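pinned: reference chain
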Amino acid sequence: MGCDIHMYVEYKQQDAADDQREEYWYAYGSRINPGRDYEMFGALAGVRTEHVPHIEPRGLPPVLGYYSKSDYWIAVVNDPKDMEGYTDPITAQRYKDHGSIEKTVEIRGLTHSFISNPDWHTPSWLTPQEFEDAINVATEDQLEWAKARLAEPEIDLSDLGPELRERGQAFEQLQRKLIQKMIDRPALMHLEYRALLAAMRTLEAGGNEVRVVFWFDN
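pinned: its structure tokens
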């Protein structure tokens, strides 16, 4: 079964700590999925790989932006009426029994209950520099694999018939060409993640504190 990543770029003004108002993180769009990239999943959080992550998963930050908070937490109410983002106490208990986290929040004198989405796991967050470092780690791992793959002898297809042998040789040559391109131009690796990093750097250059919050699904 496949695994996908859910990413949320969030930012706040760097002088916000001097403000007396409640901490608030703005959202750069909503959920972002740069692609099913298991090398990146491993570097980010040790997911779908035997590699040690660049930084061990930290869990969620104390304060989330609007979209990450809405997507991670499900409100627990007595009569959800099949509304998205809500569930009943019995279902919430079942989620909890299977590992979901519950929390309560006081809002205007009233206590509200929430349960984490049972499909989400391994939440964490990174700064732009930490995210860039994780991309570099994933790139180095992939380059190591690519060089080892090219060092292997070509597959022996001599026991195949002429037509299948020709197809197999063409596929092998194409694969080797693509792997060589990867080695020659490593900046093309994890390109969607690099684009996300560029957006984070732009927000950072505007005088903001920036982070990417993420988790994975089942």
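why pinned: The chain has a mean pLDDT of 90. The first helix runs from residue 38 to 45.
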